[in-house]
């Protein structure tokens, strides 16, 4: 099962305050453990919302909204993409993360099988082809 681990933003991350050397070192060690265990597929920190935009969709209308965005408790400062056997395994890994004061959310990703009959054989083939193209491009870079 794949899960996305969402690290919530706080005042410091939204102000663009970078982590100190100790946290970077500790996070590097934690990430190494995740990679060695075959758990970590990807992981990145995000710039503050002051550098981002949102696109609001309403029918055919598209509205661009410049950051920053209010309500830091609703914002994401970074993420991991993990491959784990279960949600419980993801929880156990996350409990070992070197955070002091933050909130982190774990959410399972939909897998092809989750879509049932609505994902026709043609759509399933398209999905597999796109995933293969993505993997090929990533291995070439």
Account of the protein in words:
The structure is a single chain. By secondary structure, this protein is an alpha+beta fold. It folds into 2 domains: 2-109, 2-Layer Sandwich (Alpha-Beta Plaits), CATH 3.30.70.1060; 115-141. The chain is 35% helix and 27% strand. The chain has helices spanning 11-14, 21-36, 87-95, 121-140, and strands at 2-8, 40-45, 53-58, 61-66, 76-83, 104-108. The strands form 2 sheets. The protein has a 4-stranded antiparallel beta sheet. A two-stranded antiparallel ribbon has the order 3-4. A hairpin with a 2-residue loop joins strand 3 (53-58) and strand 4. The two termini are 26 Å apart. The model has no long low-confidence stretch (mean pLDDT 94).
Shape: globular
Average pLDDT number:
94
**CATH homology group of the largest domain:** Dimeric alpha+beta barrel
- Spans of 5+ residues with little confidence (pLDDT < 50)? none
Helical stretch count?
4
List the strand order in the largest sheet.
2-5-1-6
Number of strands: 6
Brief characterization of the structure:
It contains 4 helices and 6 strands.
